[in-house]
Amino acid sequence: MPVTDAYLVAGEPVCSVVRWRSSAAASRPGRAAAVSGDVVAADATTGGPASLKVADVICCDSVGALTGILERYPGCAVATAPATDGEILAVTRAWCPLSVSYRARDAPGSGALVCAIFVHAWLAAGWPLSALRPARLTAVTRWAATLTPPAPVPFLLYC
After folding, report:
1. Which of 24, 69, 78, 144 is the most buried (most CB within 10 A)?
2. Rounded distance between C-alpha atoms, residue 90 and residue 68, angstroms
3. pLDDT tens-digit map of 130-149
4. DSSP 95
5. Strand, coil or helix: what is 65?
6. Domain boundaries, given as residue ranges, for the chain
């Protein structure tokens, strides 16, 4: 079944909804239509070493801070940082750096965090990052959660 849209619902109560829309349908036979779970997110600037060690996703304040995050914190699957206007750079263990466009319209929030959770959920669903074309997310609601202290963030990614 071709997947042309994916929605991420994250936080509790719901803190954010983002949408991804494919420019061309990508067939993913045998893949789940939805995946859910909890992701531990941490901020590299405010999180202490103990919290960063248990984080699944880590948000950095600059692209330069991404260097070595995955090596220093082997439990981290995705690290993100704001790059240029509306762009978030995501690094994962399975892929070269991925630039994700995050359009918030009138719903500003932490684009780096939402993108990190989306990429983590995408990988958890078993979908290859190469199918994330275009890598463009649109905020449907604003992100209202904070990362202090790091805590599990429930998520649901569905198509």
Report:
1. 78
2. 13
3. 888 888 888 877 665 556 66
4. S
5. helix
6. 2-158
Q: Which amino acid, 132?
A: L
Residue type, 25: A
Q: Do 76 and 69 touch, CB atoms closer than 8 A?
A: yes
- CB count within 10 Å of CB 68 equals 9
Using alpha carbons, select from 109, 98, 39 the residue that is nearest to residue 63.
98
Q: Which residue in this structure is represented by tokens 């995946």?
A: 35
Residue 36, Cβ neighbours under 10 Å: how many? 14
d(CA 36, CA 112): 20
Amino acid at 4: T
- Residue 151 has φ and ψ, to the nearest 5°, of -150, 160
Chain-centroid distance of CA 76 in Å reads 12
Nearest to 76 by CA among 61, 63, 94, 100: 94
Q: What are phi and psi of 123, to 5 degrees?
A: -65, -40
Alpha helices in 9-145 (DSSP H): 49-53, 69-72, 111-124
Token pair, residue 123, equals 């990988």
Residue 147 contacts residue 116 (beta carbons within 8 Å): no
Give the tens place of pLDDT for each residue, 44-75. Answer: 888 888 889 999 999 998 898 898 899 999 99
Phi then psi for residue 50, to 5 deg, are -65, -40
